[in-house]
Task: structure prediction
Amino acid sequence: MTAVVLRRGVFSVRVKHRTLVLVGVMALVIAGVGLLGLSYGPTWASPAKVFAALTGSGGGSGVVIREWRLPRVLAGLVFGAALGVAGAIFQNITRNPMGSPDIIGLDAGAYTGALVAITVLSGTSAQLTTGSVVGGVLAAAAVYLLSLGGSQSGLRLVVIGIAVNAILTAVNSWIVLRAELEIAIAAVGWSAGSLNGVDWEDLRIPFAVITVLLAVLATRAPALHQSALGTAVAVTTGVRVERLRLQLVLIGVGCTATVTAVAGPIAFIALAAPQIGRRLAGAPGVPLLPAALVGAVLLQGADLVAQLLLAPVSLPVGVVSTAIGGCYLIWLLAKEVRRS
Result:
């Protein structure tokens, strides 16, 4: 397959031609879905009005587009990319298409941490973020420790993760049932995963955190690709496998927990995006960039569908992503059964 070498200064990277085409096509799809998201609302805004609003004009409709619709569209883009990358990280580590944060309990752990911040503490943005990260890290640690003594890169880890996910889901239900009525109602609504009502204040810190995590991940991507060839090959090329896995787990948990802290646990994007991206790119392993792009498209598209289904009532995006992801999971399980 033909490849293109991209150079900037002393740095160079070899990219397959198919991957470049995929990036271009997905960028156009993201821009198109984003334009629809900026145009759609109680009053339809033409593309001309959208472009005028983005340049700082447009009057009252410009304020609506910039302050209400644009944060939601960008949240779908950035959060979808973060979830897609997190899914790709864990599917690479486990070498299993079901090894995503929402399947192996990391989403549930992050939700547990957020619930503690809501019910025990005052539930500020900083407390939600911290609680989500701590909960996700503890869930990942529990899955890892329970997997010791067997293969941590295959079905054993996934099965243990599913069990941990079930336990944490029960714990989360117990916390909600024990909470005061107003807090329980807010927690249950938030648990569906929603981008309704997000504004710039909600997004500044999460966007900064995700940007830093993705930048760090970019420096570890070559080592990740080496480890995908096998532990023996990675070690012979100088990759410290255990240290790399720890770094990747922390990055994946950080991405998942940051999204959960703002939007709640959004299911199945992290599961489906990496595998769809891998098939579109025709690449071995689970490449990160296609997973991020597909994740962005899936979450943006699911949020747009959530706004359209029962308009003018806007559904939580997690309702749509769960419906889509459930169908994908059935197909994936059927395929795995046929293969085994």
